[in-house]
Amino acid sequence: MSEFAGRNVFVAGASSGINLAIAHAFGAAGARVTVLSRSADKIEAAAAGLRDAGVDAQGIACDVRDYAGLEAAFAAARERHGALDVVVSGAAGNFLAPALKVSANAFKTVVDIDLLGTYNVFRASFDHLVKPGASLIAITAGQAVHPMSFQVHACAAKAGVNMVTKCLALEWGPAGVRVNAISPGPIADTEGMKRLADPERESAIKRRLALRDYGTKGDIAEAALYLSSGAAKYVTGTILNVDGGSDLGDASADALSA
Questions:
Q1: What CA–CA distances, in Å, run from 250 to 134, 177, 206, 255?
Q2: DSSP type of residue 84
Q3: How confident is the model at residue 55, as a pLDDT?
């Protein structure tokens, strides 16, 4: 029997993409799952898909910028499933734009969804966690540590997410709560790749990766399972790169043939 059988998982930003894949992975491993996103129709469809797969799942519509709404969401999740073993915060917003085209409001919107949203999810979850033993996971990005043109808003937000992860790991470790983050690289079939990478540039992007290919949503889901498993019981405050080596820099030079 999987160690996740009967455990309770909450995934924010899970109407589609990587976060929904994480929810399905935990559900397939036997967990009960609550998924949250701001669109009522989309999150109910996501929850229905989980239930169709045999998962005890519910969907809750809430914007991660709404702290009071999140408090109610976590209370509802606990009422249905019990105290939470795993919380994943993955809601995000992004777009490509030069800084001179990013208004103050647009910058604030991305920071509020990514950074404030991550803090809100984790802070609102604390009183509903299994303690000791809970695993909190933020979904961050390479922009947190690598400055990128046309990404000032996302770089600022994700850098903050990394520091929230590390600071909460310090503060909440004594309660037995582990806090980590996953930093995905280029992941196929995601909204982020559709927005940030022109399909015509796919081969050039892959040539720069040490592993020469995009990752899958399943790769990120497996990392989330690992970070919440007994195998990672001594891991906290870690930013886990699951990126095919993209954090290492440009690997397009063929050193093996040199």
A1: 37, 36, 10, 12
A2: B
A3: 98
Report the chain's C-alpha Rg in angstroms: 18
Q: Full-prediction pTM beyond 0.85?
A: yes
- Domain coordinates of the chain in residue numbers? 8-243
The per-residue DSSP string of 14-79 comes to: -SSHHHHHHHHHHHHTT-EEEEEES-HHHHHHHHHHHHHTT--EEEEE--TT-HHHHHHHHHHHHH
Nearest to 185 by CA among 234, 251, 237: 251
What residue type is assigned to position 86 of the chain? V
Region of 189 (left: φ > 0; alpha: ψ -120 to 50; beta: rest) is left
Q: Where are the beta strands (DSSP E) in the chain?
A: 8-12, 32-37, 57-61, 86-89, 135-139, 178-184, 239-242
Determine contact, residues 58/10, Cβ cutoff 8 Å. no
Q: Which residue has the tokens 């109407």?
A: 15
Q: What are phi and psi of 29, to 5 degrees?
A: -85, 5
Residues paired with 11 in a beta bridge: 35, 88
The whole-angstrom separation of Cα 172 and Cα 132 is 10
CATH 3.40.50.720 at 8-243, yes or no: yes
Which parts of the chain sit beneath pLDDT 50? none
